[in-house]
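# step 3/5: fold
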Amino acid sequence: MTKRPIIRKTAPPARRPILARVLILLILLLIAGMTTGCGRVKEDAKRIALENTLSSYRQAIRWGYFPAAAGFVSPEQRTDLDMEHLNNVQITGYEVVQPGVISPDDTAVQLVQIAYVLKDRQRLEQIADRQHWRYDPISGAWWLESGLPSFGDE
């Protein structure tokens, strides 16, 4: 009878430190990815909130829901709004010329072209509206700092 060699199922001693180092490196990379990922999630949430706000505001202006559009104006400026003249305005078009891009200071600027008719004169007009938006980190809302568009001959 011949003796059979014993086969070990564990890694040789030289490989154990390498596996431990690889495991530690993977754990460190995972931790680093999680900490940088949180910042990315916040930026994505801010961007999505801006896109939703700009879309809702566009719909309110486009369909002439000026009281709803006034709700997007920052609360500090909302008290100065004169909505009476807007009864004479019929919006006929709203085109985004330059979409809103978030700046490092949590502001965004969007440029739009608005076509409208003054009802009492039946005259087609167009304006370029440069919208200045500010992000409020406490409420997570974007506020229109530039106010509602200024429709001519008010």
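# step 4/5: annotate
The beta strands are 89-102, 107-118, 123-136, 141-144.
# step 5/5: archive (pending)
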